[in-house]
User: Fold Putative peroxidase from Actinacidiphila reveromycinica.
Amino acid sequence: MATEPEPQSVLSPLTSAAIFLVLTVEDGGEQTARELLADLPGLTRAIGFGAPDGRLSCVAGVGSAAWDRLFAFPRPADLHPFTPLEGTRHRAPATPGDLLLHLRATRPDLCFALATEIMKRLRGAVAVQDEVQGFKYLDVRDLLGFVDGTENPVGPAARQAVLVGAEDPEHAGGSYVIVQKYLHDLDAWNALPVEAQERIIGRTKATNIELDADDSHVALNTVTGPDGEEQDILRDNMPFGSPGRGEFGTYFIGYARTPDVTEQMLRNMFLGTSAASHDRILDFSTAVTGTLFYVPSADFLDDLPDAPARGSAVGTAPPPAAGSGPVPAQADAPGPARPASDGSLGIGNLNRSTSS
Ligand code: HEM
Assistant:
């Protein structure tokens, strides 16, 4: 029997520290990016070896616009740019990203050391679109104060939910990941009575018990397949922020075997369902980024396919995915937003996206 391709460490247990790096590859930076991808497992081992309890890992994802620039190899079947959504009150923007590096460890210093080494190698070859250092907060709570991650699949169910299989044999062992950076209006949230917060989330705050409410965040994100079976994703959300700057956020990251499942959840949240016009978590949380990546298997990184012949990659990426209510995708547009000179994302005021 053929052995299953080894996945990257997408299934590694949740840790207390993470760094999320979203990068775009500069013209001419492709070879350096390829070398980094090939060296990543070795770099991670080198830095993590001396601290085995630190469980250092790094998952690399490749964005739609970058695939044909980096590899002369068939595209993963479901790789496309993030589909932006325009709801009646809230929007999910698409933002640029050619590479995602998701670093995890039980110690922030290990993530920091590996990120430093990675960026040293990539300097000049990439532009940093976003960097977030996340931490586990209290007893695994988000900054809204609720326990986050309870309903994640585990064991064989997690593998089944997250890893590409026979449906795309050339990419078996891979995964799709969507990231979004949310900023919270904590003053407004904390002004709500706890019972109102619990109805919005769909779980009790102190005891984390699920409530029966078909318009809650939990209900809107309970997605079923054609046979009524639940469709899971694997989340490793991380709080981040800066009390000094009054910034409080959740970095959403969801791995799945097909991006369809996460995209359905996002449509439920932003465009609504028969039970709710939108997810009320969004009245207090603004999505300021949104990018989709494909995570190749570890075997793929071990033995990278050839680079495309120069000039052959132009125009091979598909158009943005169709979705209900999307606005034009910007992720693959020429000349993606480069970081502003102040080091910010350069996309203006990130505090609120509500139009009313
Ligand atoms: C502001 C950002 C977000 C926050 C603070 C947040 C927080 C939470 C919390 C507290 C829960 C309940 C406990 C749990 O099962 O984890 C939950 C559940 C869940 N969330 Fe989120 N979430 C956010 C964004 C998202 C997004 C963007 C998606 C999907 C696209 C998502 C998908 C889910 C799913 C699938 C569940 C489990 C539902 C079930 O019980 O089956 N979340 N989230």
